[in-house]
Design a protein that fits this description.
Four copies of one chain form a homotetramer. The first copy, chain A, has helices at residues 6-17, 26-33, 35-55, 58-78, 83-92, 98-108. The first copy, chain A, is globular and about 40 Å long. Helix content of chain A is 76%, strand content 0%. Chain A contains six helices and no strands. In chain A, helix 1 crosses helix 4 (58-78) and helix 3 (35-55) runs antiparallel to helix 4 (58-78). Chain A has a single domain, classed as Helix Hairpins. By secondary structure, the first copy, chain A, is mostly helical. The mean pLDDT of chain A is 90. Chains in contact: A-B, A-C, A-D, B-C, B-D, C-D.
């Protein structure tokens, strides 16, 4: 069984890298490069997710979605946000389902 | 404190929508439209994440990242995969950190 | 033979739509919605180009690339730029070829 | 005045690189890597276009749109298509304008 706290721990690790020596880790380096560098990675992993899905290799797809989530967490960290903020938003939507849920998201837009 | 099982429950809800009446819910409709329709949503939410980040509205950014994760979970569901597959991949990487972690991901590519 | 001035005329048509009644045409409406709405379309047509390429339908691919160019021209129009600005940049690169060309683009980045 | 045939010449140059030594030029190398490598570049340049637009640097934006068009032409070349195919499609749409034009594109979709 998967430890559901992996996201929480990952968020703490990412936050701890903020402001450390850019050469000390991949994440420290990416955070130091700044917002646009992180956004390029989010866009890149989104495209990789599309290509992996069309390729049909499930292991590859899982790795790309993990990369997409990972880099969106780096983005949140850059903004001072945490994985809990995303989980709280998904939790908030739990009571709202199906077509009503879609309508709700539309009306927020 | 956020219930860490929200992703697990969301994955179960998405899986239960598979094959149900496309008119019955947003997710059932999207799953029925198929892979390309889901991939268009992943790409759209990735672009929305970029725009929300540049806008600097943190609440908006959290909503867009939640949308991105949500639709990447719909994609996994379409492929018969679950949120646990992504969490397991993130967990697998936990022992590998910093520059070594990046090198590891590169060598898998 | 294709009239090479189609881009020039298209640029003029787009520029003429700027500031006109948003209800009067698709382009006037999109320009009135502003930069983020146009960027969403550029991102959407980029994703459609990927999907059409993987689908392998050449007519579909040509239509999506035309949509991508069209909406990038709407973006240039929004910024007060023209198709000639892009053609001039491509012309500027003409003398520079192969690996040297790539190196040149990299060093500008 | 810009030579409107720059796209035609660029298309011919790209076609001539097909099947040549991948080490001999950037384009030959990209064509040899294949469809997914080219699609990654199209997605990357689309994201760069978004970021350059938000940055507001017009020279940078023009360079990124030129990169986007360039790599979409490499994609067309990979599929055995030419810039003329895109220009012909844009020409075909010239008679159809405004809201009617949008409706027409929608009904093709």
């Amino acid at each position: 069984m998967i430890d559901a706290n992996v996201l929480k721990r990952l968020g703490e690790t990412l936050a701890a890298r903020k402001g450390t020596d850019p050469a000390s880790s991949y994440v420290a380096g990416l955070l130091a490069k700044g917002e646009d560098a992180i956004l390029r990675k989010v866009a890149e992993e989104s495209a990789e997710t599309l290509l992996a899905s069309k390729e049909g290799d499930k292991l590859h797809l899982v790795r790309e979605v993990a990369d997409l989530w990972f880099h969106s967490l780096v983005l949140l960290t850059w903004h001072g946000l945490t994985p809990d903020d995303v989980l709280a938003e998904l939790h908030r939507r739990e009571g709202i389902s199906g077509v009503a849920e879609k309508a709700s998201r539309k009306s927020q837009a």
